[in-house]
Design brief:
mainly alpha
Amino acid sequence: MGGGPGRPRLARSLALGGGPVSDLTPLAVFAVAAAGAAIVGLLEQLVAGVRPAPLALARAAAATLRQPLSRPDRRDGWLFHLAPGLLLIAALGALAFVPWAPGFRGIDLSTGAIAFAAALAYVTPAIFMAGWGAGRPLAVVGGFRWLALMLAYAMPLAMIITAVAAPAGSLRPTDIVEVQHAVPMALVQPLALALWLPAALAVCFLPPFDLPQADGELGGGAFSEYRGLDAALIGFAQRILLVAVSGMTAVLFLGGWQGPLLPPALWMALKTMAVAGLFLWVGRRLPRLEVDRVLSLAWKVANPLAILAIAYAGLITLLFYR
């Protein structure tokens, strides 16, 4: 009754690159999410030029939780309170499809890369529910901005996943990692990487694509009315979302866990945090773009170039990967 064989399996699963996790997926995914969110919080302080202080993060979280919950004066205010939970579920769902080592992965599907994009799609109703349920004009505008943004950038995101998966002949993330044993896709498909990065920033609603929040214009936008536990859940979900997108970036373009000397999962963690740090750094140094310019770039530039990236991926697959 003291745990039996389960404890050794748990230890192997949480070790770098160890054992199967098929029956431990929820625990493993949440552990990765919590650790990743904490590290992203420290990266945010570092990028902002503040000395990283874990206790300061804990105090800020405690202060947020002490705030009373906001109560919007709307009959559909239940949408307002469901939105943070749905956003968290979407972020955790996306993270579950990111493999961290050959024996340490969450949900291993043959279509895992596309399933990752499908999980991200649930961010859209979550943010729209947040804005609509709040019932404030600026919050509603933030929700509608997100709808427009995701309609524009979800297509190039999915097309780039298809292009990167072509040389592997599979949409399974582990297969995409394995095909990069010699050269990472960042070097093989630079156009795909150039299109992926702004789309990834948009999905994480980081500057210059933080249109749903836009503190200078909308005063927090879709999230402006949240307080207390709801606000804490949103902040936690945003950080997990950044970890998930950064992890998939490492899988698709940086060879995932592949690297010399270090354990596989450590390589994957280092690459993921490097990408997350890059996203945060870029977000603090680029000005927010106007809505019409962001949408114009997506429809007139990113989508046509994504089709070109798929054609290029097919060509190099025929020439070098078959």
